Amino acid sequence: MRFNGVGVKLMKTQRLVGGDVSGALEVARLADRMGGDEVHVSDHVLMSTSGHAERETFPYPLDYDGWYEPFALLSAIAAVTTHVRLASHVVVAPLRPAVLLAKQIATLDALSHGRVHIGLGTGWQREEFTAAGIPFDGRLTRLVEQVEACRELWSGGPASYHGRTVSFEDVYSLPTPPQGKGLRVSLGIPAGPRGVEEIARLGVGYCPSFHLGGDLTEQIASARRAYAEAGRDPASLVVTSELPMEPERDANGNVDWGASFAVAEQLYEAGVDVLLSHVVPHCENLDEVEAFIARLLELRD
Fold first, then answer.
1. Helix (H) or strand (E) holding 87
2. Radius of gyration of the chain (CA)
3. Can you give the CATH number for the domain in which 211 is found?
4. Total domains present in the chain
5. Whole domain around residue 228: which residue ranges?
6. Which residue, 126, 146, 186, 244, could crosslink 207 as a Cys pair with Cβ 3.0–4.6 Å?
7. DSSP alpha helices (H): ranges in the chain?
8. DSSP 3-state of 112
9. In terms of pTM, does the model score above 0.85?
10. pLDDT, tens only, 219-254
11. Burial class (CB in 10 A: 0-12, 13-18, 19+), 110
12. Residue 116 and residue 182: Cα distance in Å, rounded?
């Protein structure tokens, strides 16, 4: 079992330093120094405790994470790291206008000298969209057009794009990202027929969430089949997924690394290329983070 890359998710890391955002910066520094591949942040613009059609309630306590704006946090991380990729799992993209999203991602790529791997999703919480004045229905179309529009704007211009949800003619968006229009993008969307078709058509990566359930092996296989049907090399599809948020524990309540890494093996066999793991609750304080990252790095080539 050797993943192509490993990364850490920074949710709740403020708890490692008494509730301060510096926890995320300290963990990112350490991952960068030790040779980790990616650091990932999450995203919710708003949270609602009311019920939803997709889920009965918001899946975390409201104080579970700091819920920092992802591009602001990743910009701070860019300033204290040198090589680790700056990533998201995932940004709720349709909550942002396409042209603003292109600017935010390009600026982050410029600040980090081309280290961005942006994960984008459609979101599931209707209240976020209602409060932002953005239609909840049709958000997959909005996301797809955002990616297409971003690619055009990242090309250097003059850029033109005409879709159902975004349209512009002969405009320039600066800065252009160091990675150019090929900037690394992954989509965290359901692996239904349209979802995998869009992943393949756009030539982007795939970032399913293991903890959301479903047959991950079949989801990844479906995405690779769609790549092949679109005339792309299915081996070129980069799949990024995560270990469960809660680690396996022994009878004494301690983290059972053997059992947790058995789950990692399941992900590898399902076809995951880049493995992510939450730092908290695997670690109770900053002193434990180095050993945790070292164990994670053992799973990589």
1. strand 85-88
2. 19
3. 3.20.20.30
4. 1
5. 5-297
6. 186
7. 22-34, 70-79, 98-111, 126-132, 139-153, 193-202, 216-229, 257-270, 289-297
8. coil
9. yes
10. 999 999 999 999 999 999 999 999 988 888 889 888
11. middle
12. 11
Q: What is d(CA 248, CA 255) in angstroms, rounded to the nearest whole number?
A: 6
Q: What is the mean pLDDT of the chain?
A: 93
The model's pLDDT over 43-88, given as tens digits with 9 standing for 90+, comes to 999 988 765 555 556 777 778 899 999 999 999 999 999 999 999 9
DSSP state letter for 15: G
Is-contact 34 290, C-beta < 8 A?
A: yes
Q: What is the mean pLDDT of residues 162-167?
A: 98
Q: For residue 40, what are the CA distances in angstroms to 47, 87, 150, 205?
A: 20, 5, 21, 15
Q: Which two tokens stand for residue 32?
A: 């960068």
The Cα-based distances of 285 to 106, 277, 289 in angstroms read 34, 16, 7
d(CA 249, CA 104): 40
Contact 214, 192 (CB under 8 A): no
The SS3 assignment for 21 reads coil
